[in-house]
Write a structure and sequence with these properties.
By secondary structure, the protein is α/β, with parallel strands linked by helices. The chain has helices spanning 14-22, 44-51, 55-58, and strands at 2-8, 25-31, 38-43, 61-65, 68-79, 86-93.
């Protein structure tokens, strides 16, 4: 099981996401279940290392956000067209 540390984002939108990517952060969203979706930011380098493993896409991941643990699975990943970087990740909650 993988453990990923993340932070809440207070702002969302295209401009904010671009600034995050320039700072080597990765915008993401968590949705599903009965709770409202919310946006987070992850470290680009640590996710790039984890996503090289095939289990990253099929197993349940532990996201730790401000000492709160959320179990999620990867739902969708958007990749940069020609750079070896990720643009966005969608996570779905596992209840």
């Amino acid at each position: 099981m993988f453990t990923i540390h993340a932070q809440y984002r207070t702002k969302n939108g295209t401009g904010v996401s671009r600034r995050l990517r320039k700072a080597d952060k990765l915008p993401a969203v968590i949705y599903g279940g009965k709770q409202n979706p919310f946006v987070i930011e992850l470290d680009q380098n640590s996710i790039m290392n984890l996503q090289c493993k095939s289990d990253f896409y099929t197993t349940i991941l532990n996201l730790i956000i401000e000492d709160i643990e959320i179990k999620v699975k990867v739902q969708a990943i958007q990749r940069h067209p020609f750079k070896p970087k990720l643009n966005h990740i969608d996570f779905i909650r596992i209840i």
